[in-house]
Design goal:
Layout (H helix, E strand, L loop, with lengths): L3 E5 L5 H9 L5 E5 L2 H9 L5 E8 L3 E2 L1 H10 L2 E9 L3 E4 L10 E5 H6 L1 H5 L5 E5 L2 H11 L4 E5 L1 H7 L2 E4 L9 E8 L11 E8 L6 H12 L2 E9 L7 E9 L2 H14 L2 E9 L2 H4 L15
Parallel strand pairs: 1-2, 1-3, 7-8, 7-9
Antiparallel strand pairs: 3-4, 3-11, 5-11, 6-9, 6-10, 12-14, 12-15, 13-14
């Protein structure tokens, strides 16, 4: 039986490309209109796994998705970095000058700000999904309307690509997390990344103390974001990604962190994807011996 993988979006979406990168042998997609539905599909067993976008190199983190993962109790078991190429597509015979409206997901729109700014005759309408925008144009024969999305979506729905690669910056990558109801075993010597969340004591220097502890351990903090703590005005829950040389180092560091934090959520410890290792030096990746 094929694995069922929940994605936000529809066939032709970038989420599908991320799934195919992680499971090249083929899977069954469970299409979800929202990220909330994606999470619930995995929680309720309608899908074996979920793949969720959490970060883009141009427009930053999708912070609500980290909240969804934390509150769901699902485990992060992997990550995928996908090069994103945004394309303007429309029905055959359309041209850039014949279009009056462009539809796409807000993240895709944000990634193409310069192109859209230089074509101000186009009104922009945000939609729930890049591939859904393309599908609607094809199914309803919408003239004068374009969509921004993947080349796969254009091919799947029979649309012409009017303007290829319209993203503002060509170093455009999206990071996806792979979600599972259960943790996956990892060898002790594998380089891993931990996605965590933590609350701090509301006192001066508390965040600096945690950051110093991470730095002294030899681990590499690659992401730190905060979200308000509901019901506690001006207090925050911090979400972080930390890279480790080994599972052993990660377990030791996370155990130490838990001793000094009022709350720690380990949302997942998983093998680092290849791109996560790029740009790291040998010196910075050496494990240091330390004590809590």
């Amino acid at each position: 039986m094929k694995k069922r993988i929940a994605i936000q979006g529809y066939q032709g979406a970038f989420h599908q490309e991320a799934v195919e990168s992680y499971w090249p042998q083929g899977v069954e997609l469970v299409e979800c209109a929202t990220f909330e539905q994606l999470v619930q599909s995995v929680v309720k067993g309608k899908a074996h796994y979920g793949v969720m976008a959490v970060e883009n190199s141009l427009v930053g983190c999708i912070l609500p998705n980290f909240l969804l993962i934390r509150e769901s109790g699902l485990s992060v078991i992997g990550e995928v970095y996908l090069r994103i190429t945004q394309n303007l597509m429309a029905l055959p015979g359309e041209t850039l000058s014949s279009l009056r409206r462009v539809e796409s997901h807000y993240m895709a729109v944000a990634q193409c700000k310069d192109f859209l700014g230089s074509n101000q005759h186009l009104s922009v309408v945000e939609s729930t999904d890049t591939a859904l925008s393309a599908r609607n144009i094809a199914q309803h024969s919408l003239r004068g309307v374009g969509a921004i999305g993947s080349m796969a979506a254009a091919n799947l729905y029979g649309l012409d690509v009017i303007a290829p690669s319209i993203e503002t910056n060509k170093e455009n990558f999206t990071r996806f997390l792979v979600l599972s109801p259960i943790n996956q075993p990892i060898a002790s010597d594998v380089a891993v990344k931990a996605t965590i969340a933590f609350a701090l004591k509301h006192q001066p220097g508390s965040l600096a103390g945690i950051l110093n502890q991470i730095a002294d351990s030899g681990a590499n903090l690659t992401m730190l974001q905060s979200l308000p703590m509901v019901g506690h005005a001006w207090e925050y829950i911090f979400h972080a990604d930390i890279c480790f040389d080994s599972m052993e180092q990660a377990q030791r560091m996370l155990s130490c962190l838990s001793l000094g934090l009022p709350s720690l959520w380990v949302m997942g410890v998983y093998p680092q994807a290849e791109m996560a290792m790029q740009g790291s030096s040998v010196e910075s990746s050496k494990t240091q011996n330390y004590e809590c």
